[in-house]
Amino acid sequence: MPLSSPVPRALRHTRAIEIEAFARDDGLWDLDARITDVKVRDVTLASGVRSGGTYLHNLHLRITINRELTIVDAEAASDAVPYPGYCDTIAPAYKKLIGLSLMKGFRLGVKERLSGVLGCTHLNELAQILPTAAIQAYANDVIQTRDGAGHDPLPDKPFQIDKCHALRAEGPAVAVYYPRWVAKVVPG
Fold first, then answer.
1. How far apart are CA 90 and CA 77, in angstroms?
2. Are residues 95 and 74 in contact, defined by beta-carbon separation less than 8 angstroms?
3. What 3-state class would DSSP assign to 28?
4. Is 97:71 a contact under the CB 8 Å cutoff?
């Protein structure tokens, strides 16, 4: 279902976020993330004028993770920034992501290690969406989602049940797609 029709308006700014996941030959995975900001008109910054249609931000973050979703390497790069020679010096700080688990306390870890003057607001924002991107990448490759009503000998419910509204254990989607795991609601 699409969004409603907007009132007349004019595009001024586009932010794009892209994440690609790669299975490496050594058994590890890379998540290559990128965030860009583009204005449609010229904008004057303290560092000078940026022409409309050019990047204000073009930032990259790569994390390398193991099968347990722990970061074993990290790097950042800044191809376009509002304050060249200043913004683009923070990249080495992103090595502080090494050792964090994407599944246990990751977002708090990013905040503790890289918030405020310790990091880049935009790279930190980009980092925040890496856990769900990793899960999507690992689904049915590293982590079996056990989709369908077929035989499932494992004793624990699939990880995705109760992680969102649609896949709540007592809901109709689980009843249809994961009938073994549907929770019967007891009238109270």
1. 9
2. yes
3. coil
4. yes
Arithmetic mean of pLDDT, 16-31: 98
Look up residue 44 and give its two tokens.
Answer: 């004057």
Q: In angstroms, rounded to a whole number, what is the distance separating the alpha carbons of residues 79 and 81?
A: 7
C-alpha angle 132/134/136, rounded to 5°? Answer: 70
Burial label, 95 (beta-carbon count in 10 A; 0-12, 13-18, 19+): middle
For residue range 50-93, what is the model confidence (pLDDT) as tens digits?
Answer: 999 999 999 999 999 999 999 999 999 999 999 999 999 999 99
Tell me which residue of 80, 109, 83 sits closest to 96, measured CA to CA. 109
- Produce one character per residue of 99-136: b if its CB has 16 or more CB atoms within 10 Å, e if not: ebebeeebeebbbebbeeeebbebbbebbeebbebbbe
pTM: 0.88
Of the chain, the percentage scoring pLDDT greater than 70 comes to 96
